[in-house]
Amino acid sequence: MRNVAMFGLIFSIGCAKSSTSETKAPAKVSETIPVQAEPKIGPLVTLGGSITETVFALGLGDKVVGVDVSSLYPLEATKLPKVGYYRQVSAEGVISLAPKMVIASASSGPKDVLEKITNVGIRLESIPATKTFAGAKARIQSIAKLIGAEEKANELIAKMDQQIQGVKKIETPKKVLFIYARGAGSLNVAGSKNAADEMIRLAGGVNAVSEYEGYKPINSESIVAAAPDVILMTSRGLKSVGGAEAVTQLKGISLTPAAKNKAIIEVDDLLLLGFGPRTGEAVTDLAAKLNATTNAEPKP
Amino acid sequence: MLEALNITVRIDSKLILEQVSVTAEAGEVVAVCGPNGAGKSTLLRVLSGELEPTSGHVLVEGRPLSSWAPKALATRRALLHQQSPLSFPFRVREVVELGRFPYTDDARHDDIVSSCLEQVDMLSMASRVYTTLSGGEKQRVQMARVLAQLMSDDQHHKILLLDEPTSSLDLPHQDATLALAAKHAREHNYAVLVVLHDLNLASNWADRLIFLHEGRLAAQGSPSEVVTTEVIRSVYKLDSHIIEHPDTQRPLVLVRRSPSNSAPEIHTNQLQILD
Amino acid sequence: MSRLYAISLVLALIVVAIMSLAFGAMSIPFADVVRISFGALGLADPGFVEPGQHGVLMGIRFPRTLLAILVGGGLSVAGALMQGLFRNPLADPGLLGVSSGAALGAALIIVLGTTLGLSAPWMLPVAAFVGAVVSTLLVMRLSTVGSKTMVSNMLLAGIAINAIAGAGTGLLVYLADDDQLRDLTFWTLGSFGGASWADIRLSMVLIVVPTGFALFWARTLNVMLLGESAAYMLGVSIQRLKQRIVVVVCIVVGCSVALSGMIGFVGLVVPHLCRLMFGPDNRKVVPASLFLGATLLLGADLVSRLVIVPSELPIGIVTSVIGGPFFLALLSSSRKKGLW
C-alpha cells in the first residue's frame, strides 16, 4: 500500500512537471492515465533489467523501443537499441528513439541527463528499487498501472504467491554463503539486508554471514569461520572466477563444508537478484537446488 | 655604478661570505677571482639581487636593490649564469630575443638581436636549434642574450655581471668574450664584474682584481698591485713566478714546477688512499 | 608554415563545432539545424520548429558543444602553463594534485552523499571543485619555504598529496556498493552528457576568465624556460607568477573536472602537439593549445556519442584510445629528429 501511495506521489509530481514545463508537452499526457484496462500506449524506453523484464512479462514487450544495457532478459529485449547503462544514460540516445514514456529504475541517472529527456516533453516515470518479495509485487503493479496492464499483473502476482507458498520448508536449513564475484580478485560476500539475503531466506536457507549489511569483500579466514554448507553465486560471477571447480579451490572456500561437498549453486544474475516477475520461479528454483544438495549429503 | 657594503651571507649557520665590500664603477672591468668555494658565485647572486644577504647592503645607482622594481632593474643589470637549464628547442635567435623581455617597444628588437649575435660570432648560426649546439656555442648565445638585455637608448648606467663566461670556450673565444665585455665598459660605460678562474685572462682584461678567500676579501687592486707571488700563495697556497706580458706589460702567472712547491691537497688525499 | 597551421586550427574548430551541432543519435536535417540555430541566435525567423528537434539542439547539443570547447581549451592551456612552470614538456595539471583531489571530493559525494544528506545533484561538482582547490592549496603550502615556492618541492608534495587523496578514494571505493562503484567509474572516465546552460555560465567565470589571463603570460613563460634565476634577472616576479599559474590551473582544471569528470591526456598531449607544429615559443603554443584542445575534445565527444548510437562511450576512453597511440607515434618520430 505504501508503494502505491509513493507511486501516486511520484506520478503527480511527474504530471505537474510536464504541465508546467516550457516546452509544449503533449496534451495527451492526461489520456495515458488508464481509466480501464488495455488503453493505447505509445512507444516505451525501459531503464533497468527488472523493469524491462516486467514490461515484457506484462505482455507489452512490443511497445518497447529501447532499453539499457542491464536489460538482459528476455532475449527479445537484448536485441533492442541500447541507450547506455541505466545510471549513465544518453539523453539524445533516448530522445532519438522517440518514446512517449520512459520507465526508469529510481536509481537511473545522471539526474541532469534525465532532466533533458523530460524537457523535450517525454514522460519519465521512476520506479523505486526493491529488495523484498512484497516490493517486487508492488513494483509489478506500479508498472502495470503505467501501461494499463493491471489484469495481467494480478495474474502474475497470484502465480508468484503460489510459487512461494509451494516452497517446501527444510527441517535443518542449509547455511548459504552468497559470493558476488567480478573475477577471482574481487569477491564480495552478502551480509544481511540485500537481495541475495532475501532470496536465501525465501528459499528456506540461512545466510551464513549476518555480521554486516550489504556486500563486502571478506577475508579467507572469515569464510572458513562462516562454514557454509552451500555456496551461491550468479552465473556471471561464477564464470568470472572460472567455474564451480575453481571456486572450490579458492583460498578459504576450499576449507568449507560447501567445497568438500562440491555444493556450488549457480543462478542467473537477473533472476536471482532482480526481484522482477520471475521472483517466484527463482525462489522455487533456488529451493530445489538447496534441497538437491541436502540429498547429496551422505546421511549419518 | 654598483656598490656592495659589508655583505655577509650565512646559509644554515655556515658562513659563505663575511663582511665583503666591493664596488664596480661605470666604465670599469672588475674581475673576481679565488679558489673553488671562496664565495664568488654567491657574491654575484647577492649583487644581482637574487639572493638576499644575511646582512649588508647592495646599492645600484645609490639606491638599495630591494627598492627597485624588477623590470626597472632588469634594464640596468644583467647576469650571465655559468649554465642555462634551457631544454626546449628554441632557435638561437629566439633565445637572444628572450633578453629583450624587459622592453616593450618592438621596433629595434631584430636589429639589436642580430647585432648581439654578431658580437659573439654566432650570427651565422641564428636559425640553428639551441639545444643542438655545443657547450661553448650555447655559452656565446647566452652572452648575446645578456648583451641584448642591456642594449637600449636610455641613458641608464648598465651593470654586466658575468659568472665564468669563458668556462666552455676555446682560446680565441675566451679572449673575444673578455674583449667584448671590456669594449662595453669603455664605449658604453658599463660597469662589468666578471668571475674568472684564469688569472692571466683576468690580469689582461680587468682594470681591477678582487681576490676572495674563504668568504672574505683577500686582496683587491690593479693587476700589477695584486697579481703577486705573495697574494697567490696566500689565496691558492701555490708557488708561482710572475712575469710581464710583452704586449700589455701586465703580470702573468706561471705555476712553479719545483719540488719545494707543496703538492695540492687533492694529491695528498689520493696518496693517503693508496696507503 | 606557422600561419598555415594557425589558419587550419581555427578552421578545424569551426568545422568540428558545426559537425558537433549537426550530428547525434537523433537525425535532424542540416537545414533544420541551421534554421533552429539562427532562430535561437535571433538572426532569422525560425518558422515552425519541432519541439523535439529544438529540445535536442538547444538543450543538449549546444551546451554540450560549448562545454567541450571550453573544457578542451581550458585543460590544454592549463597543461601549457604547467609545462612552462616545471620547464618540462611532460608536466601535467595532475602534478598539483588537482585531479586526485577532485576525485576524492567526487567519491565522497557518490559513496557517502546519501548517508551524509549531501545527495543534491549540485553537490557532486561542488565537492569535486573543493577537492581540487584544497589539494592544490596543500601542495602549494607544502612546497613554500618562507616566501619562496620551490618547483622541485612542488613535484614531491604533489606526489604525496596524490597518494593521500588516492588512499582516501580507495577507502571510499571499498565502502561503495555496486551502483556507487559504477558511478565512480563513469565519473572517472568523464562525460559531457549532462552539459547544461548553467554549466556554460559557470565556465564563463571559472574557465574563460582565468584562461584569458593566462594568454597574456606567454612571453613570461618563455623567459621562465631559461630557468628561474635567469627569469628573475630579466625582471620576472617569479613568486607572483608561480602563484598565479597555480591559481589559474587549479580553478580551470577544478571547474573542468567538476563539470565533466576526469578527462585525461588532453592537458599533456595538446601543448606538446602545438610545440611540434609551432616550436617552443609559448606566444604561439598557448593560443594554439586553446584551439587545438577545444577541437580535439569536441571531436572526441562527437566520436563518443556516435560510435555506439543510441548509447554513449565515456569520453575519457575516447581521448585515451585516440590520444595514447598518437602521442607515442609523435614521440618516436620527434625523437628521431632529435628535437627532444
Give a structural overview:
The complex is a heterotrimer of chains A (300), B (275) and C (340). Helices cover 44% and strands 14% of the residues of chain A. With 300 residues, chain A is of the alpha/beta class. In chain A, helix 6 packs antiparallel against helix 7 (150-165). Mean pLDDT of chain A is 84; it is low at 1-38 and 295-300. In chain B, 35% of the residues lie in helices and 25% in strands. In chain B, helix 3 packs parallel to helix 5 and helix 4 packs across helix 5. The longest helix of chain B has 18 residues, at 171-188. Chain C is mainly α. In chain C, 76% of the residues lie in helices and 1% in strands. The two termini of chain C are 21 Å apart. Chains A and C meet through helix 4 and helix 5 of A and helix 3 and helix 7 of C.
Task: State the gist of this model.
The complex is a heterotrimer of chains A (300), B (275) and C (340). Chain A is an alpha/beta fold and 300 residues long.
Secondary-structure element pattern of chain A, one letter each: HEHEHHEHEHHEEHEEHEHHHEHH
H and E string of chain C: HHHHHEEHHHHHHHHH
Strand content of chain A: 5-15%
Strand elements of chain C, count: 2
Structural class of chain A: alpha/beta
Q: Into which percentage range does the β-strand content of chain C fall?
A: under 5%
Over the alpha carbons, how many angstroms does the gyration radius of chain A reach?
21 Å
Counting structural domains of chain C, the number is 1
Number of helices of chain C: 14
